[in-house]
Amino acid sequence: MAVRIIATGSFLPEKNVSNDELAQYVDTSDEWISSRTGIRNRRIAITETTTGMAVQSARRALEMADRSPLDVDLIIVATVTPDYGTPSAACQVQAELGADHAIAFDINAACSGFVFALNVARMYIETGYSTNALIIGSETLSKILDWNRRDTCVLFGDGAGAAFLEKSDRGIISVVQGSIGKKGMVLNFINRKTNNLFVNEPVETDYLHMDGQEVYKFAVRQCPKCLIEAMEQAQLTVEDIDYFVLHQANVRIIESVAKRLKAPIEKFPMSLGYTGNMSAASVPVMLDQLVREGSLKRGDKIAISAFGAGLTYGAAVLEW
Ligand code: UT7
Q: Which of 18, 21, 22, 36 to mutate to test the pocket of ligand 1 (most atoms within 8 A of CB)?
C-alpha cells in the first residue's frame, strides 16, 4: 500500500508585478533581480488572502480528484502567513469548503511546509487514521515584507497550491525531513514576544529578515544531500527520476543542485520567473503546472525538495 497524490490545484493573485514596476518604488533593477535570482514577475495579493487562495486551490484539486468537500478526512495547510493567529488557516479552509468531516490544522515549516505536510498526511493515511488528505501550501508573504528593503521585497510572491492524497498501489516512495533550529535566526520574522500589563517595553512589530548568503549556502548544501538520501531510500538513481521539483527560490540554487547531482537542468522545471519565491506554495504550484500542461504523467518518477526558515529541509521521491 502506498499514498498517492491523485490531484492538484493552484491559485495565484490577479496582480502581476514586474521587476521594472518594482524598480519604480525600490532602489533595484530588472538586471539585478533577474541575473541574481531568475525572478522577473511575481503575483501580489490585493484582495486575496491566505485562506481565500488556499480554498481556491483546494477546490481545483477536489474537482480534478472528482471528490466532494464532504469526502475530505484531513486538511493540512502549510503557511507562515495565516490570516489569523487562531483559528488556523486549515480550520478556515474547512469552514469555507464545507469539509465538515475533516480534521484540520496548520504546519509552520516555512518553505519546506509542503514536504512536511506531505509526510504527515502520508502517515495519517498509512496508519488508517484518515482515508485521504488535502494538503495546501498558501502564502501571502507580501504582508510580512518591508517594502523599503530591496534585499528581501524583490524575492517573494503570493499564491497557493494544493494536493489531494489517497491510498493507492503506488505513490510516495520515500520522504526525508530535517530541521536545524540553532541556525533559525538567519531567516526570521518576529511575532510579539510579550505584551501584557506588566511589560513596559513597547510591543515589537517587524518584517521578514534574511541573511541571504547564509540561506544560500544552506540550500546548496542541504538540498542535494536530502535528495540523494531520498533517492537512496527509494533505491532509485538520478537517471530514474523524470523531474526534480524544487522549492522555487533562486535559479542559481536550482542550477547548483542540478550540477551537484550531475542531472540535466531540463529535469528541473521552474516557475520562479513568474511567481517569485512563494514559500510553502512553491512546490505545489509547480506540480500543478506540470500536471495541467500534461508534462507530468502517471508512472513518472519525481523527486521534490524544499528548504527554508527554521531552518527546515526535506525531500521526497514519488511515483506519480
Ligand atoms: O525561501 C527561503 C530561502 N531563501 C533563499 O533561498 C534565498 C537564498 N539567497 C539568495 O538567493 C541570494 O543570497 C540573494 C538573491 C538573496 C542575494 O544574492 P547575492 O548574490 O547573495 O547578493 P548579496 O546579498 O551578496 O548582495 C550583493 C549586492 C549588495 O551590494 P554591495 O554591498 O555589494 O554594494 C546588496 O546591497 O547587491 C545589493 N542588493 C541589491 N541591489 C539591487 C541586494 N538586493 C538588491 C536589489 N537590487 N534588490
A: 36
